[in-house]
Design goal:
It is a single chain. The protein has 171 residues and is an all-alpha fold. Helix content is 89%, strand content 0%. The chain has 2 domains: 2-85; 110-170, no CATH class.
Length: 171
Amino acid sequence: MKETSWYMNVLSNPFFRGLAVGLVLWLFFWFRSMLRIRELINNVKKLREHLHTKLEIDSAENERRKQEIEKLKQERDNLRNMIQVLNQKPGRQEIRQAQVYQRAIDIMFEKAPGFAPAWQITLKEAEEELQNAERGIIPFFKRITGTPARGHDEDFETERKKALEMKSSDA
């Protein structure tokens, strides 16, 4: 009985009762906080894995985009080069058309006696007009539409008449 009375003395003492209740509550909250810390550590690991996966995916996507950009730049440069080559190289149809025009001019020289001087004057005017257009003297719109410059018709007519008069006076 003595042992029971010792336990009973300790349990009946309010200080030891408060101490026991405090220790039980402390153990409960400590165990609970340990579980919470473990849960948070697991969440941090999971978030790190997700972040690592996301960065790998973004890195692969960025690399793919860089390769695509390089491919497009190279394709653009190739197209520029091809355009330059095509602009410098006349097409077959253009060559054929130039040959047809040359043949028509040769026939006109043979058949029409007044054609040669008029043609030479017209050719000279056309060359001057193109040179002026290349230098920017003739506006871009007129160059594209082919409308003659001011006074061109009168100049052409007067020069043609002079050439015909010289031709007829020579004959």
